[in-house]
Amino acid sequence: MKNPFITNERKIFCEHCNYVIVEPYPEDSICPNCQKFSSNILEALSKSKRNNLEDKKSQYDSVTRTPSSEINGVRTKPELSDEDITDEYIKFYGITSVEMNQIFSSNEKFTYLLDLTHNLNFLATGFLGGVLDKMLLITEETGEDKCLFLKKNNIIYVICGMFTEKKGKRILNQLSLDYDSLIRKGNVNSSKITTKLKSFQNFIRENLGRDRILTNKEIPYLDECLRVDYIGLSSISTGVVSLLLDEHQELKIEVPDGIKHTEKEHEFKEDNLTARIEAISSNTQGMTLAYPRWIAVRIKFQKYRFLTFKEYPNDYFLYLLTEGNLDKIQNVEDKIAPLLSDVISQPFKGDLKPFNELKNTLKDLFRGIPGNKF
Q1: Is there a contact between 201 and 40 (Cβ–Cβ < 8 Å)?
Q2: What pLDDT score does 318 carry?
């Protein structure tokens, strides 16, 4: 989807002051008028570089004979496929603390991502029992946006845009190093931090443009399977199905002493999970006008727990808590989807009977799946 601030291939507007900017765009992505960092300039620069790369690819493809094709032992230049040419960008990078003190925001338009980071960090360290790692947002503006997080010494660093995980982690690590270096010098205020970190976009631009062939693939998951621990279905922030499958009680859900080890304990955990997930869903949509496709929490090295969201007609959302290999999530959703078709065919009107029947059907389904693994 096109950015509305980019009016044509050569002219854009600053999202802060609506100043018109034409090529050549400022290399530091700072608006000449308001002197603020502009993600629109950065995006236009990235697009321009991508077009240049495509031109080079076209020129390369037009060559039918090269010395390497005539001489044995001469290495052939690798071809650039369409998959190798990606429209990468970072529209936001920021720093906050676990105590909810916002330290730096590269773009005021997306500062809400720092507020969201606080809430997600609480979720990750709470019942998910891990460290907030990454998220995929489904947006109307760009289709998909990735968010990566890095937590060090009670400081959380976040970037948002579209990039491979390898490049994103490299950029996050450098952001943390730059901030640490700045703090160690002492006598630092918010103005100095802002001035210093605005120039960080130069590092971003350099890293998005390099290693295109080597790093265009995502980091693979070590687990071969995906285990399902919870299934939830909601309609307009009202939970209608809540099914906890966590047989080994790996989710950290606090239970009041009065109902521990009773038949009400399982029901309490289901209701508690549903309420927390609904809060995260509505909070994210309210802040970002987008919904998370998934949120990933790292529980060990290359071992992840996921909270996934799947949108259905009539304002229904399917929530899954899983652990393992996220590449298998489509298999899980495809298995569940036929069971949902009848109940989601019309908006929820308050009658829970068909949803209670659905819950029993889901129980029967997973009884036949060893270890709830896909």
Answers
A1: no
A2: 93
Say if residue 28 is in the same domain as residue 101.
Answer: no
The confidence score (pLDDT) of residue 371 equals: 84
The amino acid sitting at 165 is E
Q: What pLDDT does 62 receive?
A: 40
Retrieve residue 58's tokens: 């076209």
Same domain, 307 and 350: yes
Closest by CA to 17, choosing from 47, 42, 45, 37, is 37
Query: Which stretches of the chain score pLDDT less than 70?
Result: 1-10, 27-29, 35, 37, 39, 42-43, 45-86, 142, 187, 209-220
Residue 237 pLDDT? 76
Residues 323 and 285 in one domain: yes
| CA 194 to chain CA mean position, Å | 25
Task: Give CA–CA dist 20/7, Å, rounded.
Answer: 10
**Which residues, at least 6 apart from 159, have a Cβ–Cβ distance to it below 8 Å?**
90, 92, 93, 147, 148, 168, 171, 172, 175
Is residue 127 domain-shared with residue 249, that is, in the same domain? no
What integer pLDDT is reported at residue 217 of this predicted model?
60
CB–CB of 190/179 below 8 Å? no
- With a CB cutoff of 8 Å and minimum separation 6, the contacts of 106 are 37, 39, 92, 93, 94, 197, 198, 200, 201
At which of 208, 242, 268 does a domain end?
208
Same domain, 22 and 97: no
- CA gap 114, 103 in Å, rounded: 9
328 and 272 in a single domain? The answer is yes
Looking at the structure of the chain, the number of domains it has is 3
Measured over the CA atoms of residue 98, residue 101, residue 104 and residue 106, the dihedral's sign is positive
Is residue 219, in this structure, part of any structural domain at all? no
Residue 319, domain extent: 226-372
Amino acid 265: pLDDT: 81
